[in-house]
Amino acid sequence: QVQLVESGGGLVQPGGSLRLSCAASEFTFSRYYMSWVRQAPGKGLEWVSSIYSDGSNTYYADSVKGRFTISRDNEVKTLYLQMNILKPEDTAVYYCNFASYWGRGTLVTVSS
């Protein structure tokens, strides 16, 4: 069955950086458009970023544009999210997603 396993979350100070990873298995990763979506405490889901199957095009929410970078390595079936200049409002559980499939998420907390 399809598996998406996020990792790399944690506690970071404002202005800091984190790199999230999403390890994919049991499907042909290289064929699919992939996304990162987040959910802040007490709020709904917010789309963050997406990337074409071959990595040729990327898209970002205005709230993260210029600070976050999405990428993928189809050889190792992994999706990444490099997050820089983190702000307290970036605190959320970050999910890897494609079609109707979701990982369990990884918590990012930005706090001093």
Helix content: under 10%
Which segments are poorly predicted (pLDDT under 50) over 5 or more consecutive residues? none
The secondary structure category is mainly beta
Instruction: State which percent range the strand residues make up.
Output: over 45%
Largest sheet: 7 strands, mixed
Mean pLDDT across all amino acids: 96
What is the distance, rounded to the nearest whole angstrom, between the alpha carbons of the first and last residues? Answer: 40 Å
Number of helices: 0
Give a description of the structure.
By secondary structure, this protein is mainly β. The chain has no helices and eleven strands. The strands form two sheets. Strands 2, 4, 5, 6, 9, 10 and 11 form a seven-stranded mixed beta sheet that branches. A four-stranded antiparallel beta sheet has the order 1-3-8-7, with no helix packed on it. The termini are far apart. The model has no long low-confidence stretch (mean pLDDT 96).
Keywords:
single chain; 112 residues; mainly beta; 7-stranded mixed sheet; 4-stranded antiparallel sheet; 11 strands; 0% helix; 52% strand; globular
Write the layout of secondary structure elements.
Elements: E1 3-7, E2 10-12, E3 18-25, E4 34-39, E5 45-51, E6 58-60, E7 68-73, E8 78-83, E9 92-98, E10 101-102, E11 106-110
Parallel strand pairs: 2-11
Antiparallel strand pairs: 1-3, 3-8, 4-5, 4-9, 5-6, 7-8, 9-10, 9-11
Short note summarizing the structure:
The protein has 112 residues and is mainly β. The chain has strands at 3-7, 10-12, 18-25, 34-39, 45-51, 58-60, 68-73, 78-83, 92-98, 101-102, 106-110. The chain has no helices and eleven strands.
